[in-house]
Amino acid sequence: MKEGIHPEYKETTITCVCGNVIETKSTKKDIKIDICSSCHPFITGKQKLLDTAGRVEKFKRKYAPKAEVAPVTKKTTKKA
Ligand SMILES: [Zn+2]
After folding, report:
1. Are the beta carbons of 43 and 37 closer than 8 angstroms?
2. Which of 4, 31, 69, 72 is the most buried (most CB within 10 A)?
3. Over residues 5-13, mean pLDDT
4. Bridge-partner residues for 24, per DSSP?
5. Res 33: pLDDT
6. What is the pTM of this model?
7. Cα of 11 to ligand 1 centre, how many Å?
8. Higher confidence at residue 64 or residue 10?
9. What ranges do the domains of the chain cover?
10. CATH class of the 10-69 domain in this structure
């Protein structure tokens, strides 16, 4: 390895909001994550969404009306 061009790569911990701490190596220090391998819904089988900033609600509001309208036929057979 060349000197002086590589970022510092050392031991650090990834802390999940569920309390799980993963030890790893990274150029970053004290990484914080919202979901990890031990609290992911796929592994736990439970629905667990951490909606910190109302993002899910925003998403629903934005796309729900469209989704409801979608099945309605677009073809309005109008003849000129
Ligand atoms: Zn977690």
Report:
1. yes
2. 31
3. 91
4. 12
5. 92
6. 0.47
7. 19
8. 10
9. 10-69
10. few secondary structures
**Which amino acid, one-letter code, is at 21?**
V
Cα separation, 58 vs 47, in Å, equals 19
Instruction: List residues, by chain if needed, whose CB lies under 5 Å from ion ligand 1.
Output: 16, 18, 20, 36, 39
Whether 41 and 19 have beta carbons less than 8 Å apart is answered as: no
pLDDT score, position 45? 76
Residues 25-72 have pLDDT tens digits of 999 999 999 888 888 877 777 765 555 666 777 778 887 766 555 555
Distance 60 CA to ligand 1 centre (A): 24
Q: Tell me the CA–centroid distance for residue 79 and ligand 1, in Å.
A: 58
21-26/31-33 β-pairing? unpaired
Q: How far is the CA of 51 from the centre of ligand 1 (A)?
A: 14
